[in-house]
Records
---
Amino acid sequence: MFEKLISEHEERSLIGSQKSDEMDFIDVLLSLKHQYSNTHEELSYTIDRSSMKAILLDMVAGAIDTAKTSIEWILATLIKHPRVMKELQKELKTVIGDTQVVEETDLTKLSYLHMVVKETFRLYPVAPFMIPHESMEDIVINGYNIPKKTRVLINYWAFGRDPKVWSENWEEFLPERFLKRDIDFRGPDCQLIQFGIGRRGCPGMNLGLLNIGLVISNIIHCFDWELPNGMSPSDMDMKEKFGLTIPRAEPLLAIPTYRT
């Protein structure tokens, strides 16, 4: 599949049918591969055909499964908590209106949506652990001796459920906990490190948040959701299935009803 995509981009580049402002990620990789200036000479040799396919595979694998898992958890928590669902639909009706589709430019106005996303990520992160890190020097943290070059795994799942950080009501799904707290994925306080922090943070964070926000806002704005067979939201199974990612143990089954 990647070979076909790369070949199509090469053919399009040869016939000169593409404008500079229409370049996508594959075009950028090809331009680096064929650019033999002093600045990019080493890069042009490094990005060969196999490397390009590996980079594209990372982009696809990293963006699809994580976004899908996040969207399923957010929708599940909204169905599980009808009060939060109604509050979000109320915000969408106020900001967007009754008949319009949510656009990318609308997302910055949807403050409650962002609180819902943060609260879901706190309780149901996409992955239980961050990617492995390595200590750069000998250090003692809270009485624990960590030698230099030790592989360190950060348990983000436990961070989001620590009562010392989130108070005794940490088990409650409460987006309003972010209302008066300046906590963000980019913040230095390390309370929301879903995407990592610093220079090793996820480069796809902005794209991921944008995709998730657009999908959730539109399916909540356009549809009401109910569980099949008369099931009550309180009966929903919210157990996780642990692995490299944390999907739901049971896939979410929900029935949409058109509302706008």
---
Amino acid sequence: MSNIPVHADKITDETPVINQDMKFAAAKKSTWISVWVNAILSVWQIVIGVFSHSQGLIADGIHTLSDLIADFVVLIANRGSSKAPDEEHPYGHFRYENVASLVLGVLLLVVGGGMLWTAGSRIMSPETIPEVHSVALYVALLALLAKEGLFRYMLHVARKVKSNMLEANAWHARSDAASSLVVAIGITGSLLGYRILDPIAALVVGLFILRMGIKFTLQSLQDLMDRGADEETIAKITESVMATPGVEGIHDLKTRKSGDYLLVDVHLEIDENLTVKEGHEIAIAAEMNIRRDPQVLSVMTHIDPAQSVRAGLTT
């Protein structure tokens, strides 16, 4: 029986190096744009929030400040994951992105919890809620427009280069836009005489942040524990392998994530009467078919004689 491990590094023309370079460049550019937008907005919101006595606007400013910190986490992760493979990390450093997503999630959990505590304390003591100035409403509306625009831009870039980390950061920006909308509504209600609506808006913002934090934390933990590809991706990989001439069947197909990429292991069932060279060529062809998907980083194939496999299944 011939068992031939075929390593992906032998197929240089199919390696998605260009796509990786595009992803790193897009991440750097979009994240720096986000840094400048969030830096300006956070300072403006917190300062005006203090001046106008709006707890909701201050909470929204803190939320924006957390986005700014998250942007720097993404920049650090982007730089780390772009390092070339080395002896200690033969598959590259793409898990920097998974760790970055985990840091983002924990950051959101901490910020959201703190905001819930502060807003809840103010709601329990409504007599301590001050009157809000109208300037807070204009700042909240302007922040809403800026954050929604930033979200749409970042999501477009993330989906263009297929980056989960960038998409997570984009949805973080969308949560900011949603929170700004809630804050604007709360400030409007406060200006109309319902002062308790301002801390209620801050409470809702805290819930937004907490929810996103739970989502990102759980998702990144699963990725760090070698979560496999979804059923649709598995089906596409299976289809591409079975379309390879000479492959009669497959088994033990396994995948695991590394950053935004997939590592694939698969056993190929071929005619046992073929030569070692012929089996090797079939494995190479199957590997190239799999790696047409730019999400696939590495493929390991193992050859089994189809007749023996089928005999083993029937006994």
---
Amino acid sequence: MSDSFIPPSYAPKLNLYDTQKAIGLLKRLFEDTLGGSLNLRRVSAPLFVEASTGLNDDLNGVERPVSFDIPAAGRDAQVVHSLAKWKRLALHRYQFSVGEGLYTDMNAIRRDEEPDNLHSVYVDQWDWEKVLAPRDRNEDYLKETVRTIVECICQTQATLRAMFPQLLSLPLVERQVTFVTAQELEDRWPDLSAKEREDAWVKDHPTTFLMGIGGALKSGRPHDGRAPDYDDWALNGDILVWNPVLERAFELSSMGIRVSPESLDRQLTLAGCDDRRSLPFHRMLLSGELPLTIGGGIGQSRLCMLLLGKAHIGEVQASVWDPETLGACQEAGVVLL
């Protein structure tokens, strides 16, 4: 069952052809701006990885990867959920230095995703990762990186508005970032759900970095799930903005300073995932063979939705939808790609 809806007063700012042109321009602009601002080089990325390596992102630990055998190689493979771990290994293999990083187009299939305005079984994002010096493994460096990414978004929006005047009626993304922790939101609204807390906060703080996701809060529950083997739960977060079309908080990026051998050791135990210690990636990380890094994913379709004023993710990406979604969009005159 789909949770998709179309706001009653919604009308697309761009027609179908202009939407396609704007998507192409937006992606080129943002890639170039992000790469230059964070000193990232573009690399090629896998669509699938060997199941035995432990490189696939386990997300919340319950999502089933799309798996298949490769008879010619004698291996089993999984379509990636994200490239959170692959990127860190790539920085090691490609011998990147401190202050250098990579970004790539990540395309994934998340078969168990519940479709709605923001979610599809097809996922596209810019995955990026950068080598850190030990002295930069701190909250100040994390916050400065967040501000840089938000500035890249704002610069991209400014160019799009110049090229497509139809977008001038959309509000500008707020450049000033407000930082808040998941625990602070729980303390303020203990009776609200995590999503309701985000909506309540971001409505008044339209560009927010919500920190501390993955570990248990005072209530005993995490704000949201986060795999224990890439982000350090004390040094991570989500970039959230207020979406004026949907009138709700809107996640653009999940990111963070990655686990050190010490924090990986701790988080694997807390999450009940000690069996992962024997996997090749985890062995390398626990033994200190992999560089310290910061990284994240920035949703391509999400950013297109926001900057082009779209109400449904299917307006900016091609996917497969349930009958309820197709019917709701057809009734509202919304064209899905």
---
Amino acid sequence: MSPSTNILVLGATGYLGGSIVSRLLEHPKAANFSITALVRSEPKATVLETLGIKTVLGSLGEHDKLEALVSQADVTIAADADDLAVTEAILRGLKRKFQDTGKAPILIHSSGTGVLVDSAMGMHATDTVYSDTDIAQIEALPPTALHRNVDLAIVAADEAGYAKTHIILPPTIFGLATGQLVDLGIQNRHSIQIPGFIKYNIARGHVGIVGEGKNVWGVVAQSEVVDFYIILLDAVLSNPATSHGREGFYFTDNGEFTHREVVDAVSSALAARGVVKLAEPTPFTEDDFKQLPFLAFFGTNARSRSDRSRALGWSPTKTAKDMLASIQPEVDALIQKA
């Protein structure tokens, strides 16, 4: 590792990004890191600067600013899975860095196993399980799949030789974020999938279900997927040959659950707080799907196996049982926040 590694974190006060920043500050080699964060909020930027983090006020939508920032970084850690224009600005910055230094910079990008989803609508599980070591299987995914256009652009940049790219694909992430930035009040504590499902059902007044809830998703604890970001960062800094590009896909699953299991846990948690009556879930209606098209996502299958990630030494311990147990604290936090 170089005496000073310039690391740019995009989404530095978000659910994953904030915890990644906290881990970087606690890293045994933190003294060798120069961390920069692109931040929209001036008050949050002020807090980050007290921690020794350089901040730049702005948004991912400011593509020229984003490109310039990336062009100054040795490592960019990014968390926008679906905005191709943002990704293209990042890639232009990586190319500028390569042209200026002759050394390919590193990109660690956050995608997700949403790229694997089918149209089961809760009616069945699938036998198809994707491994992050099966490159042919991943490359057979259609370019129209969720996240896929961004993933393909990133792989193409690696193939062009001006960047070393690594794509992390978490499944359903659970658990309230904790750490220094949470304690300072500047980090989002909540994931998207399960909290979004909880909030919609609170507003609905009765817990719903997609189809029969037989579909299956993988799961990972927030703290343990953040572990992997640091493991991967350490690996690529110590060994530039660490799998990248078309071989640089990393799943981060540790167990599976059915949609019905989440529905029942959410129903019990909301009933325990008197938010809804504990009753058999009712099927989501066409009106429900119109109000929140994302609901259909909960009826899909997305099964993955993190063989490549585990080969780097990642060894998660929390499973779907822990995820189901986390739903009551998640409900309590959302009720308190409201």
